[in-house]
Design a protein that fits this description.
Layout (H helix, E strand, L loop, with lengths): L9 H5 L2 H6 L5 H4 L2 H4 L8 H18 L4 H4 L4 H4 L1 H5 L3 H8 L5 H15 L8 H34 L4 E4 L2 H7 L3 E5 L2 E9 L8 H21 L3 E5 L10 H9 L1
Parallel strand pairs: 3-4
Antiparallel strand pairs: 1-2, 2-3
Helix pairs in contact: 10-11
Length: 251
Amino acid sequence: MDEFVLGIDRTKFSSTNAAWNNLMLNDPWSVGYVSTLIELQAWHSKEEWEDFYYRSGEQRRALLGENRDLLDNFSLIRTNRAEVTNLPWAIKNLNTQYGRTREDLKKRAVALYAAVCNNGYGLTLEECEECVRFRVICETWNGIILRENNTVGVLSAKFPMLSFEKTSGDIDHTYAVDFEVLRSGTLLCGIQIKPQSYTWSAPYIAKARTANIAKNAAYTQLKGVPVFNVIAKSTGEIQNPQVLEQITKLI
């Protein structure tokens, strides 16, 4: 299957990373559990996935009712996390289990643009719209359907005695674990599958790694097993082969 290709200059795109994370625009409250949504069915093309995400957003919009203003406040997760946490599951479900419309994503682009318009890279609102679309829809496809699936294929060939079970969007978001690795039903470890860029020293990446280390530690405390990072290309080629030795020691 084809990859989505970024429609703007890569340097401009990268310059918005810190603001994107600080504004928490990628939180499930803002865009839904995209990692769960993309696993709902088998896709014939990346365009089919993108169309589904927008249609799911239309379904959400039709269900909002009297909670429209509350649920459309995508910054609430940053300004008042406690209010979001304390909402009934049925209400939160409308934000976390559905996609967003094109117009919904444009609103996030406006917020992103306000944060980066003077960052020295000359970003336009239209370029910020592409940044939002690419992160929410395209990177999800490139990372899960291509990188994750191909990497699990490589791991399964290397370890035919193991099973690799995809976690739910909630587990992924809470513990930063993409797959649970089991042998004969016994949990051995969790894994995160990441691109080579995850190892870079950029401040926003270092911040993400620090957050994920804490999430992984919480998973280890809960489940009693370690979490390993698997660095891989979109083809599934593993770029940190030492992780294979770490998994082997658990078998």
